[in-house]
UniProtKB/TrEMBL annotation, chain A:
Residue ranges annotated for the PUA domain, each copy included: 95-170
Location (main, coarse): nucleus
Described purpose of this protein according to its UniProt entry: Required for proper 34S pre-rRNA processing and 60S ribosome subunit assembly.
Superkingdom to which the source organism belongs: Eukaryota
Subcellular location, record wording: Nucleus, Nucleolus
Alphabetical list of InterPro entries matching this protein: NIP7_N (IPR040598), Nip7_N_euk (IPR055359), PUA (IPR002478), PUA-like_sf (IPR015947), PUA_sf (IPR036974), Ribosomal_synth_fac_NIP7 (IPR016686), UPF0113_PUA (IPR005155)
Protein name (database record): 60S ribosome subunit biogenesis protein NIP7 homolog
Assigned protein family: Belongs to the NIP7 family.
Quaternary assembly: Interacts with pre-ribosome complex.
UniProtKB/TrEMBL annotation, chain B:
Compositionally biased residues, Low complexity: 801-810, 1192-1205
GO MF terms held by the record: RNA binding
Lineage: Eukaryota, Metazoa, Spiralia, Lophotrochozoa, Mollusca
Protein name: RRM domain-containing protein
CDD domains referenced in this protein's UniProt entry, alphabetically: RRM_NOL8
InterPro entries listed in its UniProt record: NOP8_RRM, Nucleotide-bd_a/b_plait_sf, RBD_domain_sf, RRM_dom
Residues in RRM domain copies: 9-90
Principal subcellular localisation of the protein: nucleus
Protein source organism: Elysia crispata (lettuce slug)
Biased composition (Acidic residues): 868-879, 917-929, 1132-1144, 1206-1215
Region (Disordered): 98-120, 271-366, 567-606, 701-894, 913-951, 998-1100, 1114-1233, 1277-1308
Database matches in PANTHER family: NUCLEOLAR PROTEIN 8
Compositionally biased intervals (Basic and acidic residues): 337-349, 567-576, 712-724, 755-791, 837-859, 880-894, 1008-1017, 1026-1037, 1045-1055, 1082-1097, 1151-1168, 1175-1191
Subcellular location: Nucleus, Nucleolus
Coiled-coil zones: none
Length: 180, 1308
């Protein structure tokens, strides 16, 4: 477990900023205590200082998870967000997508979101912008990447994919063994 | 010359020197012929030096001359080089030319040059043959598939085979030759036609995939469905469900019934009879829940409504569904009107009410909001406690009969009956139960009726024999069926009944039953007839729609009632059959009479009789029926007929033992038997104890055995009797309960009749009851209600009892187990006696066990011994313990001891060996020190690490923020943080904020930023200063007062306080214009302060004044708090409008506060004027207070606007100034009076006018100055704020609008 290097932080924040923009600051600079990101086994964990203290006493090998996992660095150095980060992304989401009830299940099974399943969409969403996916009751279901901009979405076919699926809460069940 | 022939030869001349030119060559060779086409060429070196040169030329001449030429010039030297001559090939150009010439010549010869040209191909194509045959005349060409000549290729391969012959004719014949026509026709097909579609209509999925979504029109459908049949079914079902819920979770069987009912619901009216019980239940449910679910009824379509009403009538009348049908027929208005749901429901309710009233006459049924169903509900409720038993019974039933459907209603009825009976037994429950009982019996009858109607169809229905009371065996039903088709007049039926009774007199029940049942069937028919009659009659009597029902109700109710009566009678009848006959006749006669007297027709009386018979039959039938039933159900009971009475006893006993659950009726049966035989009602009935019941049963059985010198038949009969009592029991219990209650003379009389054949009285009683019922409907209703409540209570009680029983049983089970366990594990300590007790049956084993255990004990003692030895050794050790040990002496010894102690293990002892080696110990010491140091260091390091961690984290955070800046961009981040800070200012979690009046500063600090905090504290300190000054001034006052009298002192203190309070009040009033509610609280607070201050008047002046100031300060502090409070909460307690405003913007809030200020400012002079009268000290105080108030205002300002820090400071300064001035003025105070001041009222003249004036002049200016300044500032601020706000808003709006425009533009 170690703090992220500058490069890692950069990639990580770049990825994160696609979803929550400058709200990352709220994650780093919190009023209710000091929180930090830590890299452990290629995974980035977000934890409080207390957790860090406790966790530092554990052997690196045996430490499975600490705090909440935001995602992992791939071997090629990219960063992948995990569903577990949803709790922190959802409240600060910049761009949101609301799903129709009919499309909820599809999304939760890991499918992309088609225009037919799109209930609402944040204005001014650009292409390949990270979006948080909600259902109509504003319950965060997951997140993804906008396949089309808001403008393009308006004119496209109902079967076209509007949001690429990245993570959904269904993964808690599907990927139970791999999620940390 | 033969050689004269001219030859043209191309000559090559090599070995020429560089200098030779073409002309020279031409000159030299022209001697031998005609030279032409000379070409001289020189090969040049890389450097450009000529290597060699050669020439070609055509020489035309004779052969000889050419030879001569050769001879002369071959190897001849020319210009220093040797010439060489050779014949050369023709020059390329020439040759080509020649060829062309040749061709042209050939063309001339062959007139078709083109054809010749393509001839090869043509030939090849036309040369059709088997593909693969070599093309003639051409090597390595073969004929392809389509007659084309295809070259055979020789391919070089890298490995093994060097060459591969590739014959394309074998591989590539796929090329198609398109003829011209085909090529022309091909483009005609458009691209669109190339794709094709299946003409099938798209499936939904494909449609969806295409993006075509079906229109959603569900809501509409729903609306439509409300009125449709489909809807009504579920509604009814739901009503049933609710019913079951309401009626204390009826059994699941009911639910299953519902399911069946659903199917049945759709069926037309004609088929209703099949499941009257169900329908009645459903109906009852509907009606019972009518208040809860009035909709279902309203929702029902007409057909359903009909059904409902039918079922309702049947349900209410219990027995006669057919009559009810009939009843419906004559009243088409029902349907017509019934189109309106309300009407229908009303109508339904009307007849019901009618029935109710009728019933009240006979049964004292209750009329309430949902009156008719109370009885039913009561039934259900009563049924509940016995659900367990019922269930058990049902189980048996299940075994016995193929379908639940038919049985369930019956079983229900029986259950309810039983329950009722029991209830009556325990609590002498009320008529209601009796009524319900009666009502139930009809329902039972109803159940029975279907058998008659649809026996042939449903053999299943024949089964519901299980109930003791109602059971109708298959054979009987058949007989009934046969008889039921006979149309019989009341007389006939009665006759038949009489017949049956006669048979009964014969005491051959097996035979008797048949005629009886005939009677039964007739009864049913008769009832139907009656109904019809009544329907016909009714219009005359009453309004058509209601009258019908009424009459029918009358009929029905009366029979049912009679039935009940007769049931009671029947009990007695079972005892003495011969008497019964007479009784019945007589009673029927009497009843007839009674009916005559009442408005009822004769027929009803007849029906009554019939019903009586019917009941009789039923009872008897059930008696017999019970036999087969039991045969199926329980082998024990089956053994009864065969084995004999003794066996019966045992069986019954075992049954009782086996449980109340298994055979719920049994316990009841026993008392019933007793009752029937011994005529001792009270004791038996009251006793709920099953054991007792069992005993009695046995006794009865014994008696029957003793008396049982009769034949098998008689025995059977007895058995029947013994069984029938079950029903009779319930009935008798009912009667008993009724008797005890003394509610109705009739029933008690009936009971008596059962005991002592008083028929006539019964008849009269019946009459009485009817009449009485007419008279006191309401009373009865009330009584019924009470009873119902009681019944519910009882039910609960019983349930509790059952639970207790269960618990006890379970506890016993547990205890037994525990005992067993003890045998196994615990016995070692116990005596063998207990073991023997426990394990009596296998004594050997126990012995074995004991032996083993003893051995165990010995083994166990092993360690104990060891322990004891230890103890001994310990004792020995005592000496050692107190021995002085050399190794523990001295400092080091101490350490050693410590070490030893630290180890703690007794076995490990440090002896003298450890004591020596001082150096080592020293080393150890050193080591210890080092270790301690290390530890300290590590600890320090840890601490440092901890402290470092946070610092590191901070660093990390900073670095992270930097990175973030890079990522997001600094400007955006800055903007964001700015925004954040703004937001944090704005958004305060009001839940976390709590107003504590005792800690004003806290509240203020909580609510404001750190900057503001300072300013907020400032006024406080200011107030403290004030206090100090006040104390000074009080000293001065003291001096003054010292000259005055004591009483004056007291007055002084008291009055000022009063005045102060007055001032406060004034101020408050002024302020309360803005927030009245808030201020009220404050006023109360101030008033609270008053007594405090007053009480303090007795104390020394200065201190009291000081206290007062303090109190005031506190009070003011409160005010501050409230101010801040009110501001923070948007003055929620004041006007709602204000609240809204404040919520909308802080600017408004500020404005509000401004207002307050202005108000205060306005009020201030007034208060001052008042103060003038009060006197110097008071003035002092007042001014102080004013200052404080001002301070409060200042603080409020501070709270309200973040920019008001400066102003508050200013305010403070001002305050100080004013204070100073005040103090000075007090020093100079002299008496003077002004008229104006006197006008102010409330004048307490203690100081001269002059004094006041002086002071006032000094003060006033100051005050006015201060306030003006404040006001100005505030106004300024407000203006500024407003402007900024407006600006912001404008900017926002403009931005928004521009955005919108942009968006619109983009869209375009």
């Amino acid at each position: 477990m170690r703090p992220l290097t500058e490069e890692e932080t950069n990639t990580f924040f770049e990825k994160l900023s696609k979803y929550i923009g400058e709200n990352i600051k709220l994650l780093i600079d919190r009023q209710d205590g000091s929180y930090c990101f830590r890299l452990h086994k290629d995974r980035v964990y977000y934890m409080s200082e207390e957790q860090l203290k406790i966790g530092s006493s554990a052997a690196g090998e045996s430490l499975l998870s600490i705090g909440s996992c935001f995602g992992k660095f791939t071997k090629s150095g990219k960063f992948h967000l995990h569903v577990t980060a949803l709790d922190y992304l959802a409240p600060y989401a910049k761009h949101k997508v609301w799903l129709k009830p009919s499309a909820e299940q599809q999304f939760l099974y890991g499918h992309h979101i088609m225009k037919s399943g799109l209930g609402r969409l944040t204005e001014d969403t650009e292409q390949y912008q990270g979006v948080i996916v909600y259902n109509m009751n504003d319950l965060p279901l997951g997140f993804g990447v906008a396949a089309k901009s808001t403008q393009a979405c308006r004119n496209c076919d109902p079967m076209t994919i509007v949001v690429f699926h990245q993570a959904d809460t269904g993964q808690y069940i599907r990927d139970e063994d791999t999620l940390t | 010359m033969s050689n004269s022939e001219i030859l043209s030869k191309r000559l090559y001349i090599g070995g020429l020197s560089e200098n030779v030119s073409e002309s020279e060559l031409l000159e030299r060779f022209s001697r031998f012929g005609k030279v032409s086409n000379v070409s001289l060429k020189t090969r040049v070196d890389d450097n450009g030096e000529p290597l060699k040169s050669f020439a070609h030329l055509n020489l035309q001449g004779d052969e000889a001359s050419i030879k001569k030429c050769f001879n002369t010039y071959q190897n001849s030297k020319w210009k220093g080089s040797v010439m060489k001559l050779q014949y050369a090939k023709e020059s390329v150009l020439e040759r080509l030319q020649k060829e062309r010439e040749e061709e042209t010549s050939a063309n001339v010869k062959v007139p078709k040059p083109e054809s010749e040209k393509s001839s090869s191909a043509e030939i090849l194509i036309t040369a059709k043959g088997v593909p693969g045959t070599p093309v003639p005349g051409k090597k390595d060409w073969v004929v392809g598939k389509y007659g084309r000549a295809v070259p055979v290729m020789k391919l070089k391969k890298s490995y093994k085979i060097p060459m591969v012959k590739h014959d394309p004719s074998k591989y590539c014949h796929t090329a198609k030759v398109f003829k011209d026509e085909e090529q022309d026709s091909a483009p005609e097909n458009s691209c669109n036609k190339l794709t094709w579609e299946i003409n099938k209509p798209d499936s939904e999925i494909t449609k969806k995939r295409k993006g075509e979504y079906p229109e959603i029109s569900k809501p509409l459908k729903k609306k439509i469905a409300v009125g449709s049949l489909n809807r009504s079914e579920p509604s009814e079902e739901s009503s049933l469900l609710t019913f079951s819920d309401n009626l204390y979770n009826k059994r699941k069987a009911f639910l299953s019934l519902q399911g069946d009912q659903d199917d049945l619901e759709v069926v037309k009216i004609g088929t209703v009879p099949k499941r009257p019980g169900i329908s009645s239940l459903a109906d009852t449910s509907n009606k019972f829940d009518s208040d809860i679910e009035s909709e279902p009824e309203s929702v029902h379509p007409s057909v359903l409504r009909q059904q409902n009403s039918v079922t309702g009538s049947s349900g209410t009348f219990k027995a006669f569904k057919r009559p009810s049908e009939n009843g419906l027929k004559p009243s088409p208005q029902n349907h017509t009107r019934g189109m309106e749901p309300e009407n229908s429901s009303k109508e339904v309710s009307k007849p019901l009410s009618n029935t109710q009233s009728e019933r009240n006459q006979s049964f004292s049924y209750n009329s309430a909001g949902i009156p008719e169903f109370k009885g039913l509900s009561m039934l259900a409720g009563l049924a509940q406690p016995f659900t367990s038993s019922a269930i058990s019974g049902n189980k048996g039933v299940d075994k016995f009969s193929s379908t639940k459907q038919a049985q369930m209603p019956i079983s229900e009825a029986t259950n309810s009956k039983i329950s009722k009976a029991v209830l009556s037994n325990d609590h002498r429950v009320m008529k209601n139960i009796g009524h319900s009982n009666s009502s139930l019996t009809p329902s039972v009858r109803e159940n029975a009726e279907p058998h008659t109607v649809s026996f042939a169809e449903s053999s299943i229905i024949a089964n519901p024999v299980q109930d003791v009371t109602i059971a109708t065996p298959a054979p009987f039903s058949t007989s009934r069926e046969d008889n039921s088709f006979k149309t019989s007049t009341p007389n006939a039926s009665t006759e038949i009944v009489n017949q049956g009774t006669a048979h009964m007199a014969d005491e051959s029940k097996s035979f008797r039953l048949v005629p009886e049942f005939k009677g039964l069937g007739m009864i049913s028919d008769y009832n139907v007839d009656n109904e019809k009659d009544s329907v016909l009659k009714s219009p005359r009597k009453l309004e058509p729609d209601t009258a019908i029902k009424e009459t029918s109700l009358l009929n029905k109710s009366s029979p049912s009632f009679h039935a009940k009566l007769n049931l009671h009678q029947e009990d007695s009848h079972t005892l003495s059959d011969t008497r019964l006959n007479l009784k019945l006749r007589e009673s029927s006669k009497k009843r007839k009479r009674g009916h005559d007297s009442s408005s009822d027709s004769d027929s009803s009386a007849g029906t009554a009789e019939i019903v009586v018979r019917y009941k009789e039959e039923k009872l008897s039938g059930t008696a017999q029926l019970s036999k087969p039933e039991y045969l199926v159900k329980q082998s024990k009971i089956t053994s009864i007929p065969s084995a004999g009475d003794v066996s019966v006893d045992s069986n019954l006993m075992s049954e009782f033992v086996s449980g109340f659950d298994e055979f719920g009726q049994c316990p009841i049966v026993a008392p019933a038997n007793k009752v029937s035989e011994d005529d001792s009602y009270d004791s038996d009935l009251d006793s709920n104890d099953f054991a007792l019941v069992a005993k009695k049963l046995r006794q009865k059985a014994m008696r029957s055995e003793q008396g049982g010198s009769e034949k098998l038949n008689s025995r059977d009969k007895k058995r029947k009797d013994s069984l029938t009592p079950k029903e009779t029991l319930s009935l008798t219990r009912d009667t008993k309960g009724l008797d005890k209650q003394g509610m109705s003379d009739l029933q008690s009389k009936l009971v008596k009749i059962a005991g002592t054949e008083r028929e006539s009285e019964g008849g009269s009683g019946h009459m009485k009851q009817e009449k009485g019922g007419n008279l006191s409907d309401k009373e009865k209703h009330r009584a019924a209600n009470e009873k119902r409540l009681e019944a519910v209570k009882q039910q609960a009680k019983q349930r509790r009892q059952q639970q207790q029983l269960m618990q006890q049983a379970l506890r016993n089970v547990d205890s037994v187990e525990s005992n067993k366990k003890r045998i196994v594990f615990d016995s070692s300590d116990d005596d063998s006696g207990t073991e023997d007790q426990n394990v009596k049956h296998n004594s050997k084993d126990t012995m074995h066990l004991i032996a083993e255990k003893k051995a165990h004990k010995q083994e166990n003692t092993g360690p104990a011994l060891f322990d004891s030895s230890d103890d001994e050794s310990d004792e020995d050790d005592y000496d050692e313990m107190f021995k002085s040990k050399p190794q523990f002496e001295g400092k080091r010894g101490e350490k050693l001891l410590k070490l030893e102690n630290r180890i703690g293990d007794k076995r490990f002892k440090l002896d003298a060996k450890f004591a020596d080696t001082d150096s080592e110990e020293e080393e150890d010491d050193d080591k210890d020190e080092e270790a301690a140091k290390l530890e300290d260091a590590s600890r320090n390091a840890m601490d440092i690490a901890d402290s470092d961690l946070s610092s590191k984290l901070k660093e990390e955070k900073n670095s992270n923020l930097k990175v973030l800046e890079d990522v997001v961009g600094k400007s955006t981040l800055d903007r964001f943080s700015e925004k954040l800070s703004r937001n944090t200012k704005k958004i305060i979690d009001m839940n976390s904020v709590r107003f504590d009046p005792t800690k004003v500063s806290v509240s203020s600090t909580k609510l404001t930023d750190s900057k503001k905090r300072e300013t907020a504290i400032d006024p406080k300190t200011g107030s403290k200063q004030q206090l100090r000054e006040a104390s000074d001034s009080t000293n001065l006052k003291k001096e003054k007062k010292a000259r005055k009298k004591e009483f004056a002192k007291v007055d002084d203190v008291a009055k000022p306080s009063k005045v102060n309070s007055d001032e406060d009040a004034n101020n408050d009033q002024a302020e309360s214009k803005d927030h009245s509610t808030k201020k009220k609280g404050k006023e109360s607070l101030s008033k609270k302060d008053e007594p405090d201050s007053k009480s303090k008047t007795n104390v020394e002046l200065s201190s009291s004044l000081l206290d007062m100031f303090k109190a005031k300060a506190e009070h003011k502090g409160d005010k501050d708090a409230t101010f801040s409070f009110s501001q923070q909460f948007g003055e929620a307690d004041s006007d709602e409008d204000d609240v809204n405003e404040n919520e909308e913007g802080s600017g408004n809030r500020l404005f509000k506060c401004e207002k307050d200020k202005t108000v205060i400012g306005r009020t201030e002079p007034k208060s001052d004027s008042e103060e003038d009268d009060t006197g110097e000290k008071k003035r002092n105080e007042a001014s102080k207070i004013m200052e404080e108030e001002r301070a409060a205002v200042v603080t409020t300002e501070v709270m309200s606007s973040s920019e008001s820090d400066l102003s508050s400071d200013e305010g403070e300064e001002d305050m100080n100034i004013s204070k100073k001035s005040i103090s000075s003025s007090t020093d100079k105070a002299k008496s003077r009076i002004d008229d104006d001041l006197q006008d102010a009222g409330r004048v307490d003249i203690r100081f001269t006018k002059e004094q006041w004036l002086e002071q006032w002049d000094a003060l006033r200016q100051n005050i006015i100055k201060i306030y003006k300044k404040k006001h100005k500032d505030a106004l300024k601020k407000k203006r500024i704020h407003g402007e900024t706000k407006r600006k912001k808003e404008f900017l926002k709006n403009s931005r928004k609008s521009s955005k919108k425009q942009c968006g619109a533009f983009k869209k375009r």
